[in-house]
Amino acid sequence: MHPVDIAGPRLQLRELTSNDVEAVHAIYGDADATRHLSFEPRTREQVREIVAHSITLSSEQPRTEFALAVVRQEDRNLVGYARLALDPHAQKAATIGFALRPDTWGAGLGTETVHLMCALGFNHLGLHRIWAARAPLNAASAKTLLRAGMTEEGRIREHVFVRGAWRDSITYSVLDHEWRAPDGFAPANG
């Protein structure tokens, strides 16, 4: 599926462009935004490489990774970066992850982002299972994933090495027959 263009009530998922580097850096270069992620803040050059790689991956056939801009519909501003990666070891399964600009936190945009990623996975890619992981101290992410309809599955011990130490991950999943798109979700460009 290319290009991805999926809309929710307030947000839209779209393909990244080279013009998105500064907006993505406002997220990936921010210490608060990356505090619970599996990496430390990125430099502008690292973000430029991430965006360029994401653009390259978008045209691969078959496409196995979807790295997308999360855009606020009212002003078209990029407020997040979301990723869905097909699992190479399981049929019809993928993992998702996302990061939002800290100034947008607390407004339900994380839940809507998870719903948009599930719409991509289930409605457009025909997946059976989508899973996500969070840092144990990221309580806001726990609420977001549960509110979006995911179920906590368990803990992967010492899963990620970040900031000089091993960190566990708490995993969540949702199955195709469990997920239902909320009102206001429609493909903008099938």
Topology:
Layout: E1 5-7, E2 11-15, H1 21-28, H2 31-34, H3 44-57, E3 65-72, E4 78-86, E5 93-100, H4 109-124, E6 129-134, H5 139-147, E7 151-162, E8 165-175, E9 186-187
Parallel strand pairs: 5-6
Antiparallel strand pairs: 1-2, 1-9, 2-3, 3-4, 4-5, 6-8, 7-8
Helix pairs in contact: 1-3
Give a description of the structure.
By secondary structure, the protein is an alpha+beta fold. The chain is built from five helices and nine strands; from the N terminus they run ββαααβββαβαβββ. The chain has a nine-stranded mixed sheet with strand order 7-8-6-5-4-3-2-1-9, sandwiched between helices. A hairpin with a 6-residue loop joins β4 and β5. The longest helix has 16 residues, at 109-124. The chain is globular. The model has no long low-confidence stretch (mean pLDDT 91).
In short:
The chain is α+β, with helices and mostly antiparallel strands.
Could you list some keywords that capture this structure?
190 residues, 9 strands, 5 helices, alpha+beta, nine-stranded mixed β-sheet
Low-confidence stretches: none
Distance between the termini: 8 Å
- Radius of gyration, whole Å: 16 Å
- Characterize the main sheet: 9 strands, mixed
The ordered string of helix (H) and strand (E) elements is: EEHHHEEEHEHEEE
- Structural class comes to alpha+beta
* Strand order within the widest beta sheet: 7-8-6-5-4-3-2-1-9
* Count, helices: 5
Strand content range: 25-35%
Percent in helix: 25-40%
Give the overall shape, derived from the CA principal axes. Answer: globular
Total strand segments: 9
Quaternary structure of the protein: single chain
Average pLDDT, rounded to a whole number, is 91
